[in-house]
Amino acid sequence: MVKYGCARLNLERRINSGLIEMLQDIDNMVDKTPQGLNPSPIIHHVLGNLLNDLVFGIKYEKNNVTWKYLQHLQEEGVKHIGVSMAVNFLPFLRYLPSTRRTINFLLSGKHQTHAIYDALISNQRSKLRSCDTFIEEQEECILTYFLKEAAKRQEAGRPDAAFCDDIQLRHLMADLFGAGVDTTFTTIRWALLYIALYPTVQKRLREELRQRLVVNEPPSLKDVEALPYLRATIAEVQRIRTVVPLGIPHGTTKEIKIGDFKIPSNTMIMPVVWAVHMNPILFNAPNTFKPERFLDLEGRFSIPNYFLPFQVGKRMCLGEELARNILHLYIANIVYHYDWIRISPEDAMLIDLTGNCGLTLTPPDYIIIFSKNNK
């Protein structure tokens, strides 16, 4: 997930593989359902398969039973994790029937997911032991890197080899896959919804793409710097509908003081990112969707230091570069590929932009009408 060089080009190629599949699937659905379609299942499949590729080194067919289950578990699990977070602060809640059902669902899903992961780990470990050259020819993935590093540390007798066990690996893969899919998938859903609801924004996006891209060449990562309004639009989506409103829990390693408040050591801290992004002192008219707020007087993309979609500091989101690449390529190519993206006026009046808050803030389901162009 670097910003320059061959690794970046390879990552873009892998992102584009799913992107091409997504556009083809939407095109096919447009022909069958001219009244509009819900793009979420299509996007979820290709984006999830990209993370499957990067984390596990595999891809699933759309109707694969295991993949269908993992998608369902990921969607439902994110909702339940958010709801059950109160148990961290009020442990007695775990004895309530509704909370116990939620916890049982999460634990059952965890055990079944880990069983799937164990099979993947065993299969990849066998390949590593039997034929190193075969693995070298495969696409890079987190699972292979972890297994190689673990073997290297164990052979060297390093004390930190104890941390490279399968328990750590299961949780690592679950974290990377879950966080990588859900946050980016949700941001894309919000972005398409806002772009469809704001035709002036969509028109300006399309004009920028047509003016600044090579004729008949779809947008690529090398074009991003030349597309400030695209970047501003994505940033405004991330601000107005912060995907993780409460951020990710952090902890203090020593006593600290913020203003007049002393916070003891070993205290859980929940950063309320939503309160920052919706602060009228920092962002004028925060409930108004206005990408221009992220452009300077010369029309260049500019973000303030209090814009925190990936949090901040040494423990900020390690997938930031990957997420940005996906968002820029997906949104740019969808807008470029279609002459218009709209929601029927009747549906637009009924859509509640408040969102549904679990661990992430997700939009309601919606139907989009895509008008294909002749490119």
From TrEMBL:
InterPro entries in the record: Cyt_P450, Cyt_P450_E_grp-I, Cyt_P450_sf, Cytochrome_P450_fam2
The keyword Metal-binding is assigned to this record: yes
Keywords assigned: Heme, Iron, Metal-binding, Monooxygenase, Oxidoreductase
Domain of life: Eukaryota
Family matches, as Gene3D superfamilies: Cytochrome P450 (1.10.630.10)
Binding site for heme: C317
GO terms, biological process: organic acid metabolic process; xenobiotic metabolic process
GO MF, any single term: heme binding
Keyword Iron (UniProt): yes
Cofactor: heme
GO cellular component, one term: cytoplasm
Pfam families, alphabetized: p450
PANTHER family noted in UniProt: CYTOCHROME P450 306A1, CYTOCHROME P450 508A4-RELATED
Record-stated family: Belongs to the cytochrome P450 family.
Name this polypeptide is given: Uncharacterized protein
Organism whose genome encodes this protein: Anopheles arabiensis (Mosquito)
Biological classification of the source: Eukaryota, Metazoa, Ecdysozoa, Arthropoda, Hexapoda
